[in-house]
Design brief:
By secondary structure, the protein is mainly alpha-helical. It has a domain of 84 residues. 48% of the residues lie in helices and 8% in strands. The protein contains five helices and two strands. A two-stranded antiparallel ribbon has the order 1-2. Helix 3 crosses helix 5. The longest helix is centred in the last third of the chain and has 14 residues. The N and C termini lie far apart (34 Å).
Amino acid sequence: MANKKRGQVSVSFKGKPLKLSLSFNSFCELEDHYGQNITDIVAKYAADSANKTASLKDARALLWASMLEGYPDASLKDAGVLAEKLGHEKLGDTVADVLNNCGLFDAKSGAGGTSAGKLQTGQSSTA
C-alpha cells in the first residue's frame, strides 16, 4: 500500500504493485534528462497542464522519474507502457498526485495545479 505521507501513489506495473514517488534523486534524474532545474521543469508542466497543452513526453518523463525509487531500472519506454495502461485521464491524475504529494513544493500552490508551486527551501542549489 502506498504511503501518501511519503508522496507515494500505488499502481500496478508488469503484474506487480509499484509505488510511484518523486524523491530528491528522481528530481536530479529529471534535471539531467531535461538539462534544466526542477523548478523550471515543473513550472512548464503545470502551466501546460492548466492550458490543456501538456506534452506526452513531459508526462512520460515525470512518470518515469516517479518509477525510479520502486523500479530503479525503469526506462522511458517502461514509463510509456505504464502511461498507456493508465490511460490519458488517469495518467494526468497520477502525475498530478505524485507531484502534489512529493513534499518539495508549497502546498498552497501545488505542483500539479495551475501554478508550479515554490520549492520549500526557497533557495536554488549550485551543488
